[in-house]
Amino acid sequence: MIEIMSPAELVRARETGALVADILQTLKGRITVGTNLLEIDQWAKAMILEAGAVSCYVDYAPSFGRGPFGHYICTSVNDAVLHGLPHNYTVADGDLLSLDLAVSLGGVVADSAISFTVGSQSKQDADMIAVTERALKAGIAAARPGARVGDISHAIGTVLSAAGYPVNTEFGGHGVGSTMHQDPHITNTGRPGRGYKLRPGLLLALEPWIMADTDELVTDADGWTLRSATGCRTAHSEHTIAITEDGAEIMTLPR
Question: Which reaction is this enzyme known to catalyze (predicted)?
Fold first, then answer.
């Protein structure tokens, strides 16, 4: 399913996006060495419910997971990169943490992810995070009416590959709207000029993510958390954007 948002729905998308961004930034500011992942989940839950929003994760049970997910945010640490299931783990100095959050407010979903190091940051981690952020910026710049999904994929993949990172195409960006995961699927590398033609009112979640030395994922025993097959470090950045008449607008910016 591909939804095209009305002007009124885009107003709600901005509100949802700002909420998601605010929660992520609040959590980032609150997390220190010694914070437990389950605390992060509870903080996210409290902020979501206080805003009158609905978690997209608690009851989420897709074919690829061991659902329902049962938590309010994805917390992926170090070699974990996607769908990190919160568990009883205390964050240590130097841990690379990715937070991925999707909520629905007023019937419209927004989805975003950030990566950061808790405490001391290595150059490798800083470089990896920066590459995903540059790739995300390139993907957004390629998103405009009349462009194709492949143009976004190509822009993202060009940045990731030029930096020397392998690119996995199993999981990537996607459409959003009244639900969290919709068509079109947006791989993190691809051929320009191919795929669905972008139209004003389309909401897309773009999410470049990388693993330092592999493109192969393995799944934890929890059935959800995806890790690098080699145990290498990972990073993930994501924004929800709306296609406008003259380009793209980022929905998930903090207020």
Answer: Release of N-terminal amino acids, preferentially methionine, from peptides and arylamides
DSSP string, 133-202: HHHHHHHHHH--TT-BHHHHHHHHHHHHHHTT-----SS-EEEESSSSSEEEEE-SS--TT-SPBP-TTB
Rounded to an integer, the average pLDDT of 142-150 is 98
pLDDT of residue 134: 98
Cα–Cα distance, 145 to 248 (Å, whole number): 9
Please enumerate, by residue number, every residue annotated as part of a binding site. Answer: 83, 100, 111, 174, 181, 207, 238
CA angle 69, 41, 213 (to 5 degrees): 75
User: Residue 64 has what pLDDT?
Assistant: 83
Per-residue pLDDT band at 23 (split at 50, 70, 90): very high
Residue ranges at the known binding site for a divalent metal cation: 100, 111, 174, 207, 238
CB 218 within 8 A of CB 229: yes
Q: Is the pLDDT of residue 86 over 90?
A: yes
pLDDT tens digits for 211-241?
999 999 999 999 999 999 999 999 999 999 9
Burial letters 174-204, b for 16+ CB under 10 A, else e: bbbbeebbbebbbbbbbebeebbebebbbbb
Q: What are the distances in angstroms from CA 243 to CA 10, 17, 76, 200, 202?
A: 10, 14, 29, 5, 5
Do 103 and 19 contact (CB within 8 A), yes or no?
A: yes
Alpha helices by DSSP H, the chain = 7-30, 37-50, 123-142, 149-162
> Residues annotated in the binding site for substrate, as ranges?
83, 181
Across the strands, what pairs with 249? 242
